[in-house]
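Field reference: "sequence" (input) and "structure" (output). Example, Holocytochrome c-type synthase:
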Amino acid sequence: MSCPVDHEGPSSAKECPVDHQKLSKSETCPVDHGAREQWLKMAYKDRKQKPSEFVLSSGREVSSIPKGEKGQGNWIYPSQEQFYNALVRKNRDASPEDMQTIVPIHNAVNERAWFEIMRWERDYDSSSCGGPRLVSFQGDASKLSPRARFNKLLGYSGPFDRHDWVVDRCGTQVEYVIDFYAGQANTGDLSKPSFYLDVRPKLNSVEGVKMRLRKFFGM
């Protein structure tokens, strides 16, 4: 059984949902680094101080998210060292100490998003092609989804981030929108930040409309 950590040097855009070399918006990480202040706020809300000693790990974790092309394996998350260097290159206010908290949060959010997508996909047989795969992704915290905009008009708090993932299901591509909301503070295990993900297919395709209607009517 092989080790889940890639020890073979620098990463590429095909190895992880985080492209740490290219900075175009369409290739940013599913968890937008621009939202790191919110993640840190949740993670450190009940801490009196941040850790003073740290070592930036170069180890990487393999996700449960299959890549778009069959046979390419799964996406690989960045190490603490890669994540920190990516933030520095983007001139973000990055602190090495934060990486011990932000990287696990980053990975957990990706896994939660994929779990929610799989809940939608479980009603559709894709066993013939090995199951759904993540083809592409982009994040834009400044762009509200129609549902988030409507909820804000009703007086509810808006999401602090929004992402769009394209999933391939045996040749059928389905676009998903993901709104990220901050949950109540977790006063117990601080390694488990509180957040809520509103994940659903977009209504910009016949397939997306069919999926939403099927879910709405409990079919």
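The beta strands are 62-66, 74-76, 133-139, 161-169, 172-182, 195-201.
Residues 10 and 82 are 9 Å apart (CA to CA).
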